[in-house]
Amino acid sequence: MHVAPVGGTAVQDHVALAEIELCGDLIIAASAAREDRLSLESIDEVLKVAQERDTSGE
Predict the structure, then answer these.
(1) What end-to-end distance do the CA atoms of the chain give, in Å?
(2) Whole-number Å distance between alpha carbons of 3 and 9
(3) How much is the average pLDDT of 1-14?
């Protein structure tokens, strides 16, 4: 059995960490929402989709 050494050998996947953070933001928004489901507009707001479109020049 191979066990990872203790210490600073952890590899971070920045894309995966960003996706986990976005999922967490969606979970928090969904738990705070009054309605059963988040609207598409609410999801876009949580994920800052409109801001991305504005800054990309579209």
Answers:
(1) 53
(2) 12
(3) 69
H or E segment at 50? Answer: helix 49-55
2/51 Cα distance (integer angstroms): 45
Burial of 44 (0-12, 13-18, 19+ CB in 10 A): middle
Rounded CA-CA distance 35/19 in Å is 24
As a whole number, the mean pLDDT across the chain is 82
Type of residue at 2: H
Give the confidence band of 53 by pLDDT, cuts at 50, 70, 90.
low
The CA distance from 14 to 33, in Å, is: 29
